[in-house]
From TrEMBL:
It is a multi-pass membrane protein. This is Major facilitator superfamily (MFS) profile domain-containing protein. Residues 29-478 form the Major facilitator superfamily (MFS) profile domain. One of its GO terms (molecular function) is monosaccharide transmembrane transporter activity. One of its GO terms (cellular component) is membrane. The chain crosses the membrane at residues 22-42, 84-107, 114-134, 201-224, 322-340, 352-374, 386-404, 424-448, 455-474.
Length: 519
């Protein structure tokens, strides 16, 4: 349900005539669709735990295992600094990055549901290969297939949820993706806690259980409706109307359906969708949605905590089981944050959550850095009191991320793009996100080794930049229909100076004024 500057303007303001209710069919579609996030979450959680398991390290990374067992205080920050070990984590995200371009084609030509099914299939195969891995090559091949699954899922699921949701609750519905991501992380943390005790094959069970959510998503997707937006985009107008009526629970969908058709007509008039992202009139979507938010989401340092939380806690003197248990605590905080965001995002707004969380995340990172600078790396274990403060600070950081950059990093970009470039735009979002995810994953342990506590000061500084970016450049999209998002940039203190320079903007504005005068 979107229009850019092509056909959505004439429909601007029609959203007040949208009708519908929350139906069981809509709820089922949202639940099944959102579980695509569990693939991403399960991998984040399971890979972080497995890389700290002794049995896994002994088989594939013996150098890391022996360094870990040496208990040398000079290696406190550097126990896990191994490029092959980090490649095990980051290879998935590099593969996901490349796969997003294929996902864009499938999502646009075959529909959002098709991409979800492709992602589930690839994730299943990757989980099977990883569970059976006998060498590092098999591990990497499995990770690549998992990455393709995540690339397709992350490209399609946020679009699916944004398009199928009524605009008044679009924020809460889109948050389901982050909620299932968080649940996937938590479930993986719990599984790791128990499989760590199953010697010597517990790690295989952790990796192989990835096939479970992949199977559930594939089967559920067989019964998912395609979004009306996608059906209209591909010319299936009658089916699109039937699905829209069924999802909304009413036959009175004329206003919304007309917006869909007008947005689709505008989309067909546009050629070179990726090139269209560079147009001046789409500069806000490019800077905020495609480049800024997905990059900053990873540069917050959160995924470093998720990737390596057991490793971090072990490096800080926690035992193996205690480290995995602490990961369960942080995973639980992430779920709590996601639930808070679901309840508050359409009430408090996106900007408020971003800004408040920024303050909390900066404070938490500073506390972590100060504790490590004063108390850690001197050959002594942290006291119980200091360790508790450290875990609390990390939990406050995690819960703040859980109600801000975690869910909003997917929600806000999915709201910004008009239909004619939505699939391409979301592909760039996922591509940028996965690039920085992979880069952070590959570099974090080396950065921790060389910068020590300074790495957390670095993350705090980046969060300051992120918060300023939001304050200055992001308009509030709360309860604004997707087809009217362009109006926000037209009124924004800075973006209005940019978009009004585009010749197409001037022509469409003149056309809209003529239509309004005739009305």
């Amino acid at each position: 349900m979107a229009g850019g500057f092509g056909g959505g303007e004439a429909a601007a303001g029609r959203a007040e005539f949208y009708e519908g209710k929350i139906t069981g069919y809509f709820i089922l579609a949202c639940i099944v669709g959102s579980f695509g996030g569990s693939l991403f979450g399960y991998d984040l959680g399971v890979s972080s735990g497995v890389t700290s398991m002794d049995d896994f390290l002994k088989k594939f990374f013996p150098d890391v295992y022996h360094r870990k067992q040496a208990h040398l205080h000079e290696t406190d920050y550097c126990k896990y600094d191994n490029q092959l070990l980090t490649l095990f984590t980051s290879s998935l995200y590099f593969a996901g990055l490349v796969s997003t371009f294929g996902a864009s084609y499938v999502t646009k030509r075959r529909g959002r549901r098709a991409s979800i099914m492709v992602g589930a299939t690839s994730f299943f195969l990757g989980g099977a290969i990883n569970a059976a891995a006998m060498n590092i090559a098999m591990l990497i091949v499995g990770r690549v297939l998992l990455g393709v699954g995540i690339g397709f899922g992350n490209q399609a699921v946020p679009l699916y949820l944004s398009e199928i949701a009524p605009y008044r609750i679009r924020g809460a519905v889109n948050q389901l993706f982050q909620l299932t991501t968080c649940l996937g992380i938590l479930v993986a943390d719990i599984i790791n806690y128990f499989t760590d005790r199953l010697h010597p094959w517990g790690w295989r069970l952790s990796l192989g259980l990835a096939m479970g959510p992949a199977t559930a998503i594939f089967v559920g997707a067989l019964f998912l409706p395609e979004t009306p937006n996608s059906l209209v985009e591909r010319g299936h107008l009658e089916e699109a109307r039937r699905v829209l009526e069924k999802v909304r629970g009413t036959h009175k969908v004329d206003a919304e359906f007309e917006d869909l058709k007008e947005a689709s007509d505008a989309a067909r008039a546009v050629t070179g969708t990726f090139r269209n992202l560079l147009a001046v009139r789409n500069r806000p979507q490019l800077i905020i949605g495609a480049l800024g938010i997905p990059a900053f989401q990873q540069l917050s340092g959160m995924n470093s905590i998720l990737f390596y939380s057991p490793v971090i806690f072990q490096s800080l003197g926690f035992g193996s089981s205690a480290a995995l248990y602490s990961s369960i605590i942080t995973g639980s905080m992430l779920v709590v944050g996601a639930l808070i965001s679901m309840v508050s995002v359409d009430r408090l707004g996106r900007r408020f959550l971003f800004i408040e969380a920024g303050i909390q995340m900066i404070s938490s990172m500073v506390v972590v850095a100060v504790i490590l600078a004063l108390k850690f790396g001197k050959g002594e274990e942290l006291s119980k009191g200091v360790s508790t403060v450290l875990v609390v600070a990390i939990c406050l950081f995690v819960v703040a991320y859980g109600w801000s950059w975690g869910p909003l990093g997917w929600l806000v970009p999915s709201e910004l793009f008009p239909l004619e470039m939505r699939s391409a735009g979301q592909s760039v979002v996922v591509c940028v996100n996965l690039f920085w995810t992979a880069a952070v994953a590959q570099c974090f342990l080396a950065a921790l080794c060389h910068l020590r506590w300074g790495v957390f000061v670095l993350f705090a500084s980046l969060i300051v930049v992120m918060s300023i970016f939001v304050i200055l450049l992001l308009p509030e999209t709360k309860q604004v229909p997707i087809e009217e998002i362009w109006m926000l940039f037209d009124k924004h203190w800075y973006w209005k100076r940019v978009v009004r320079r585009d010749p197409k903007y001037q022509g469409n504005l003149h056309q809209q004024q003529q239509e309004m005068s005739r009305a």
